[in-house]
Amino acid sequence: MQEAMVMERTDEATARWAELLARRAAAKTALEAHTEMVLKPMTDAIERTAPRPDLWFDMEAKSGQVARFFFDTNRLDAWDNHVSPCFREAAASIRTAWLDYAAARAAHDSDAVEAKNEELCAAQGDAEENLLMAPAPDVAALLWKLHYLFGADVCRPGGPGPTLNAEWAIALMADVEALLGEPTVHP
Question: What is the pTM of this model?
Answer without folding.
Answer: 0.77
